[in-house]
Amino acid sequence: MTNEDTTDTRIINLAALSTQSMGGVLVTKRHLKTATHVSENMSYLTGIPASKFLTTPLTDLLSRDLLHDARNVIGLPQSHSRRSYLGHCSLNDNPLEVCVHSTNSHVMWEFFPAPPKNITGSMALQQLNTIQDELARADDIKGLLTHVCETIAWNFGFDSVYAYKTNPRSHQVAEFQKDFSTTEGDSRCSDYLNSPWLREQLRRARLFAVQDVQATPVKCLKSDEESVPDFSMSLCQYPQPKELSWLRSQQVKTSLDIALLQGNKLWGCLLCHSTVLPNPFSLQDLLMLEGLSRTLSLLLTFHTDAEEAGTLG
């Protein structure tokens, strides 16, 4: 029904084999013996030299429980099309959150610093759950998207959140701004949203997050014999030059794009921007927003008659 039910074999690689610093990336073959690729910031996140992941068996570096959970996940058919949250772990007393995503040949692990216990996102989770309870009864999709924009803005520290319809043309459907003196404008946002790379990224991965637009990319190390696997589902994927240039031109510090799908097609997206650096994204928050993307996408799929009636702008 939606694009998570199909496996697209096209590859979108990380730009110049680099990642964002908000999380560490580890890529292994499906047998989970040693890593084929690792981002250099895994040294900082785990206290283990990044190069060691390429030469040392994972059984000597990761806990038995974590490897067991990963093996269970990658054996599921849906693991080829969505990431799975493995929960919390600790490496050298460094608290982390972990998720995995598998392809036909590789498994991509992503490690994020666990947020402090007093920053749990529980209020945001409660409000988003309330929204999702309302979705099945929603007739005014435009009004609902406005409510979603406001909830995301206040609970995740964004200055502005826009709902855009991108098919067949880009135009704004709903918005929420904390400061109405700042706006990107329809035409400039359209240039950004019409990027073929960004559209394909959103259709495949549902989220495209940039924690710090000004941050230097983190290099990835790889085994000598390994080719580059499919990194398109990486939450830490570094922006392409065109998209990065646009974000910087708008004085955006933090950006999050959330896909809205209708069937297999990209219907639009939620464009979330902040001109200051809020709290770092937590893995749990990103996966929560990914779940919201799925729920909103299901709503759009089953309410095509609303669009035909003109209620979506």
List the topology elements.
Blueprint: E1 18-19, E2 24-29, E3 35-39, H1 42-46, H2 64-74, E4 84-91, E5 94-102, E6 106-113, H3 122-135, H4 141-156, E7 160-165, E8 171-177, H5 186-193, H6 196-205, E9 207-210, E10 218-222, H7 241-249, E11 254-262, E12 265-274, H8 283-302, H9 304-308
Antiparallel strand pairs: 1-10, 2-3, 2-6, 3-10, 4-5, 5-6, 7-8, 7-12, 9-11, 11-12
Helix pairs in contact: 3-4, 3-8
Widest sheet, order of strands: 1-10-3-2-6-5-4
Low-confidence stretches: 1-16, 181-185
Give the overall silhouette. globular
The profile of the biggest β sheet is: 7 strands, antiparallel
Residues in helix, %: 25-40%
CATH hierarchy: architecture of the largest domain: 2-Layer Sandwich
Query: Rounded to an integer, what's the Rg over CA atoms?
Result: 19 Å
Question: How does this model look, in words?
Answer:
This protein has 313 residues and is an alpha+beta fold. It has two domains: 3-113, 2-Layer Sandwich (Beta-Lactamase); 122-308, Beta-Lactamase. Helices cover 31% and strands 25% of the residues. It has helices spanning 42-46, 64-74, 122-135, 141-156, 186-193, 196-205, 241-249, 283-302, 304-308; strands spanning 18-19, 24-29, 35-39, 84-91, 94-102, 106-113, 160-165, 171-177, 207-210, 218-222, 254-262, 265-274. It has a seven-stranded antiparallel beta sheet, with helices on both faces. A hairpin with a 2-residue loop joins β11 (254-262) and β12. α3 packs antiparallel against α4 and α3 (122-135) runs parallel beside α8 (283-302). The longest helix is centred in the C-terminal third of the chain and has 20 residues, at 283-302. Residues 1-16 and 181-185 have low confidence and may be disordered.
